[in-house]
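Limitations

Structures in this collection are predictions, not experimental determinations, and the ligand pose is part of the prediction. Treat each record accordingly. The example that follows, with pantoate as the small molecule, is included so readers can see exactly what is and is not provided: the inputs are given verbatim, and the output is the predicted complex.
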Amino acid sequence: MSTEPTGTHIVSRSHELRVALKGLRKSGRTIGLVPTMRALHEGHLSLVRAARAECDIVVVSIYVNPTQFGRGEDFDRYPRDLEADTGYLSDLGVNWVFAPTDAEMYPAGFDTWVQPGRIAERWEGEFRPGHFRGVATVVLKLFSMVGPDRAYFGEKDYQQLLVIRRMTEDFNVPVTICACPTVREPDGLAMSSRNAYLSPEHRRQARVLSQSLCSAAESVASGERSAKNLVTAMRSIIATAADAVIDYVAVVDPNTLEPVSSVTGPVQALLAVRIGGVRLIDNLRLTPPEVSAPAPSPE
Ligand code: PAF
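Predicted complex:
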């Protein structure tokens, strides 16, 4: 019989974690996994809280995955503070922090990759070639190592969420993918580890991202149905920030991520913008009122 785990254990070896979780799984405990890359903020903690509320055992992985960063990206300066991160996780009642080394995740001779398909081609896939291959590969490895019943991801990385859902389904991984809403700063900026790179002036300018998305949502609510008009309006709001450089702004089908021309049902607005060289992404579901309104009750 396995006893109730107490405290937060930090492990770096997947074998150690597998042994610890084996008995708990056998005794029927459900396991929740929250994959992270350190520099934990409220967005991550909201995933951990959801896992804590829904699962018996919570595992948080902390691993800055080198294979999802392109050349010239911020891998080397990605914020790392394992001690602070484990402090937050222990306060939230996390049972295991899995912090593997590179040698554990990519041992010598590692040579097999998950190559996501169409869902990964556009948007982030276009601007960050190889990114989703790295994400899908490391997430599949984490699923194999931890064997979670449920795994938690933020809607902030909307395309990543769809890539992981597709991969999980295509490879028949027995895990439920749970999506949690984007957590925002009081002025609307989506929480991201990369916000820490913004200077105070660029942090102020970064408000245009959420402002443009909210404005699109309001336009749809008041009858705008042209995706082209929505994108034009979003672009002009973003352009009010002096140092903003747009990678993409798009209105897309929320399941396929293909651009739509008119809003005939729920759509997803996606954007990626560099502000003072810091690349930020955000997105929002836009739902026309005739779709979101409750169906009229039968006569
Ligand atoms: O969203 C992230 O932090 C990462 O892409 C993930 C899912 C932990 C994989 O490294």
